[in-house]
Amino acid sequence: MEKFEEFCVPQKNLTVESFNFFAVHQRENEPFESFLMELQTKAASCEFGELKDRLIKDRIVCGVRIVCGVRDKNVQRKLLREGNITLNEVVKICVASEISEKQARIIQDSSEISEKQARIIQDSSNVDAVQKSKGAFSKNHGASTRSEIKSDFIDCTKCKKET
Fold first, then answer.
1. Which domain of life does the UniProt lineage start with (predicted)?
2. DSSP output for 115-153
3. Confidence check: pLDDT of 105 > 60
4. 3-state secondary structure at position 155
5. Which residues make Cβ contacts (< 8 Å) with residue 26, sequence separation at least 6?
6. How many domains does the chain have?
Protein backbone atom coordinates (compact mmCIF):
# COMPACT_ATOMS: atom_id res chain seq x y z
CA MET A 1 0.00 0.00 0.00
CA GLU A 2 2.87 2.38 0.81
CA LYS A 3 4.35 1.94 -2.64
CA PHE A 4 0.97 2.65 -4.21
CA GLU A 5 0.62 5.92 -2.23
CA GLU A 6 4.15 6.98 -3.16
CA PHE A 7 3.30 6.36 -6.80
CA CYS A 8 -0.09 8.15 -6.73
CA VAL A 9 0.75 11.12 -4.53
CA PRO A 10 2.44 13.74 -6.69
CA GLN A 11 5.93 14.58 -5.51
CA LYS A 12 6.88 18.15 -4.93
CA ASN A 13 9.27 19.54 -7.52
CA LEU A 14 11.40 21.92 -5.46
CA THR A 15 12.88 23.49 -8.58
CA VAL A 16 9.41 24.48 -9.79
CA GLU A 17 8.44 25.68 -6.32
CA SER A 18 11.59 27.83 -6.14
CA PHE A 19 10.97 29.16 -9.63
CA ASN A 20 7.45 30.18 -8.62
CA PHE A 21 8.81 31.91 -5.51
CA PHE A 22 11.50 33.84 -7.36
CA ALA A 23 9.05 34.88 -10.07
CA VAL A 24 6.88 36.79 -7.59
CA HIS A 25 6.85 40.57 -8.04
CA GLN A 26 4.50 43.06 -6.50
CA ARG A 27 1.84 43.74 -9.12
CA GLU A 28 0.66 47.20 -10.04
CA ASN A 29 -1.73 48.56 -7.37
CA GLU A 30 -1.16 45.48 -5.19
CA PRO A 31 -0.94 46.36 -1.49
CA PHE A 32 2.39 45.48 0.14
CA GLU A 33 0.66 43.18 2.66
CA SER A 34 -0.78 41.09 -0.18
CA PHE A 35 2.63 40.88 -1.86
CA LEU A 36 4.23 39.79 1.42
CA MET A 37 1.54 37.14 1.98
CA GLU A 38 2.12 35.69 -1.49
CA LEU A 39 5.87 35.52 -0.88
CA GLN A 40 5.36 33.77 2.46
CA THR A 41 2.95 31.26 0.92
CA LYS A 42 5.30 30.44 -1.96
CA ALA A 43 8.30 30.21 0.38
CA ALA A 44 6.49 27.71 2.62
CA SER A 45 6.41 25.14 -0.19
CA CYS A 46 10.08 25.62 -1.14
CA GLU A 47 11.67 24.04 1.92
CA PHE A 48 14.20 26.87 2.27
CA GLY A 49 14.77 26.07 5.94
CA GLU A 50 16.82 28.72 7.75
CA LEU A 51 17.17 30.77 4.56
CA LYS A 52 13.42 31.36 4.26
CA ASP A 53 13.29 34.83 5.93
CA ARG A 54 16.42 36.01 4.15
CA LEU A 55 15.09 34.95 0.74
CA ILE A 56 11.71 36.61 1.38
CA LYS A 57 13.57 39.77 2.41
CA ASP A 58 15.67 39.63 -0.77
CA ARG A 59 12.55 39.19 -2.94
CA ILE A 60 11.00 42.24 -1.27
CA VAL A 61 14.08 44.33 -2.02
CA CYS A 62 14.09 43.15 -5.65
CA GLY A 63 10.36 43.21 -6.36
CA VAL A 64 8.77 45.86 -4.18
CA ARG A 65 6.45 48.50 -5.58
CA ILE A 66 5.03 50.75 -2.92
CA VAL A 67 2.03 52.66 -4.29
CA CYS A 68 0.14 52.76 -7.58
CA GLY A 69 2.48 50.36 -9.31
CA VAL A 70 5.41 52.75 -9.18
CA ARG A 71 8.60 51.10 -8.03
CA ASP A 72 9.89 53.15 -5.12
CA LYS A 73 13.63 53.37 -5.72
CA ASN A 74 14.13 55.37 -2.50
CA VAL A 75 12.75 52.53 -0.39
CA GLN A 76 14.79 50.04 -2.36
CA ARG A 77 17.97 52.12 -1.80
CA LYS A 78 17.20 52.40 1.91
CA LEU A 79 16.75 48.64 2.21
CA LEU A 80 20.02 48.04 0.36
CA ARG A 81 21.88 50.58 2.55
CA GLU A 82 20.75 49.00 5.81
CA GLY A 83 22.96 45.92 5.46
CA ASN A 84 22.05 43.20 7.94
CA ILE A 85 18.40 44.10 8.31
CA THR A 86 15.84 41.53 9.44
CA LEU A 87 12.69 40.58 7.54
CA ASN A 88 10.56 42.27 10.22
CA GLU A 89 12.48 45.54 9.80
CA VAL A 90 12.08 45.34 6.00
CA VAL A 91 8.35 44.81 6.40
CA LYS A 92 8.07 47.78 8.81
CA ILE A 93 9.92 50.07 6.38
CA CYS A 94 7.78 48.99 3.41
CA VAL A 95 4.49 49.31 5.29
CA ALA A 96 5.47 52.73 6.67
CA SER A 97 6.48 53.88 3.18
CA GLU A 98 3.21 52.67 1.67
CA ILE A 99 1.14 54.42 4.35
CA SER A 100 3.08 57.69 4.12
CA GLU A 101 2.87 57.68 0.31
CA LYS A 102 -0.90 57.22 0.47
CA GLN A 103 -1.22 60.02 3.03
CA ALA A 104 0.93 62.32 0.89
CA ARG A 105 -1.33 61.63 -2.09
CA ILE A 106 -4.42 62.46 -0.01
CA ILE A 107 -2.85 65.72 1.14
CA GLN A 108 -1.77 66.57 -2.40
CA ASP A 109 -5.23 65.79 -3.78
CA SER A 110 -6.92 67.92 -1.11
CA SER A 111 -4.54 70.83 -1.74
CA GLU A 112 -5.22 70.59 -5.48
CA ILE A 113 -8.95 70.72 -4.73
CA SER A 114 -8.37 73.75 -2.47
CA GLU A 115 -6.37 75.47 -5.23
CA LYS A 116 -9.16 74.79 -7.73
CA GLN A 117 -11.74 76.16 -5.31
CA ALA A 118 -9.62 79.27 -4.74
CA ARG A 119 -9.30 79.79 -8.51
CA ILE A 120 -13.06 79.41 -8.94
CA ILE A 121 -13.70 81.92 -6.17
CA GLN A 122 -11.11 84.30 -7.63
CA ASP A 123 -12.56 83.91 -11.13
CA SER A 124 -16.08 84.60 -9.86
CA SER A 125 -14.87 87.67 -7.92
CA ASN A 126 -13.09 88.89 -11.06
CA VAL A 127 -16.35 88.53 -12.98
CA ASP A 128 -18.16 90.45 -10.24
CA ALA A 129 -15.49 93.16 -10.34
CA VAL A 130 -15.76 93.48 -14.11
CA GLN A 131 -19.54 93.67 -13.90
CA LYS A 132 -19.31 96.32 -11.18
CA SER A 133 -16.73 98.33 -13.10
CA LYS A 134 -18.87 98.18 -16.22
CA GLY A 135 -21.74 99.54 -14.19
CA ALA A 136 -19.57 102.28 -12.64
CA PHE A 137 -18.35 103.58 -15.98
CA SER A 138 -21.50 103.10 -17.98
CA LYS A 139 -23.75 106.13 -18.36
CA ASN A 140 -26.73 104.22 -19.66
CA HIS A 141 -27.34 101.28 -17.30
CA GLY A 142 -30.63 100.30 -18.94
CA ALA A 143 -29.40 100.60 -22.56
CA SER A 144 -29.88 97.48 -24.63
CA THR A 145 -28.91 98.45 -28.19
CA ARG A 146 -25.68 99.77 -29.66
CA SER A 147 -27.30 103.04 -30.65
CA GLU A 148 -28.54 103.50 -27.08
CA ILE A 149 -25.07 102.99 -25.64
CA LYS A 150 -23.14 104.75 -28.42
CA SER A 151 -22.62 107.70 -26.13
CA ASP A 152 -20.50 105.42 -23.89
CA PHE A 153 -17.90 105.04 -26.64
CA ILE A 154 -15.30 107.62 -27.52
CA ASP A 155 -13.49 108.17 -30.80
CA CYS A 156 -9.77 107.48 -30.93
CA THR A 157 -7.96 110.72 -31.61
CA LYS A 158 -5.30 108.93 -33.64
CA CYS A 159 -7.26 106.65 -35.99
CA LYS A 160 -10.76 108.09 -35.49
CA LYS A 161 -12.17 104.63 -34.63
CA GLU A 162 -14.78 104.14 -31.96
CA THR A 163 -13.51 102.47 -28.79
1. Eukaryota
2. HHHHHHHHHHHHHHHHHHHHHHH-S-TT--SHHHHGGG-
3. yes
4. strand
5. 32, 35, 63, 64, 65
6. 1
